[in-house]
Amino acid sequence: MLLRQELRAVLVTAALTLRACAAEGAETCPTLFADGRRPALTNPKLAAETLPLCFEAYAVLHSGRARAPLYAAERLTRAGVASARQVERVDAFHDEDRVPAEQRARLDDYVRSGFDRGHLAPAGDMPSGAAQAQSFSLANVVPQDRVFNRSLWAAIEESTRRLATRRGLLFVVTGPVFEGGSLAAINGRVLVPTQLFKAIYDPVAGEAGAYLAPNRADGDWRAVSLDVLRGIAGLDVFPGLPPSVTAAAMSLPEPRAYSSDDHAARRPRTHEQGWQDWLGRELARALRRAFRDVLRAIF
């Protein structure tokens, strides 16, 4: 009897230790950041009610004030992009239950809002089905103009993937810019970005820069240095880089060379026709949520 009690105590202690380690890893996830360092907020107004979250292939800093992420960080490799191109896309947007209920976006916030649920870390970057499912968390989503999201922004995402394929390794930080004293909010809850950026750092070449584009249908993009981006976004995306890297914007590929039609033709995607397809998507979503709940119950 005593042996059983001692064994049970050991198992409980091991479980608690494993849970603590998992929680610690979820807070830090250093492999997703250049030199293991998280982006640093330089605008103190952004710091309130923030929560760092880690996923399999990306990390975010979530804002309870904006009810949206302030950034998503990724480590893109040639092999990872190749794997991602083989993953069939299944849309499964879901609330992020690690964020307090009053601080997170809900699926109904986007209903009839006129905006897309725009990924920061793209589903097309995710190297596995599980990672892709995690990318549909609303903690990784901001309201995006529909035309912009499906055209120029999709092309910027594809341009970044192709650059990662050519160079082998990139660190990428994507985020919103909230400018002005009176920001729009969908459903009176989720702030709408005025611009979006995708910052890129090539640690081998020692180059960095960022795409910056307005969140509207008729906008254009421009390349900016990390110093310029810091002043606009209030975020030091790659802390610790030398001034010689942050002061000049690297040469970024023209994203319009990669049309959304070309991207869709190369990436398999489920068809949205018929009740069978709808049922399949809903079952896949339910299974993913159940699997996530089981993992959280264990850890």
Q: Would you mind describing this structure in some detail?
A:
- The protein is of the alpha+beta class and 299 residues long.
- It folds into two domains: 1-30; 33-268, Extracellular Endonuclease, Chain A (3-Layer(aba) Sandwich).
- Helices cover 35% and strands 22% of the residues.
- It contains nine helices and 13 strands.
- Strands 2-3-4-7-10-11-12 form a seven-stranded antiparallel beta sheet.
Features of this protein?
299 residues, seven-stranded antiparallel beta sheet, two-stranded antiparallel ribbon, disordered N terminus, 9 helices, Extracellular Endonuclease, Chain A, globular, 35% helix, alpha+beta
From the alpha carbons, calculate the radius of gyration and give it in angstroms.
20 Å
- What is the highest CATH level, the class of the largest domain? Alpha Beta
How does the helix and strand content classify structurally? alpha+beta
Task: Please provide the count of β strands.
Answer: 13
Stretches where pLDDT is under 50 for at least 5 consecutive residues are: 1-26, 260-275
N-C termini distance: 28 Å
Query: If you average the pLDDT, what whole number results?
Result: 85
CATH topology of the largest domain: Extracellular Endonuclease, Chain A
What fraction strand? 15-25%
| Number of spatially distinct domains | 2
Corresponding CATH superfamily of the largest domain = Extracellular Endonuclease, subunit A
Which second-level CATH architecture of the largest domain applies? 3-Layer(aba) Sandwich
Helix content: 25-40%
- Shape verdict: globular
Q: In sequence order, what are the helices and strands, one letter per element?
A: HEEEEHEHEHHEEEEEEHEHHH
Q: Largest beta sheet: what is the strand line-up?
A: 2-3-4-7-10-11-12
Count of helices?
9
Please describe the biggest sheet, giving its number of strands, its sense, and whether it closes into a barrel: 7 strands, antiparallel
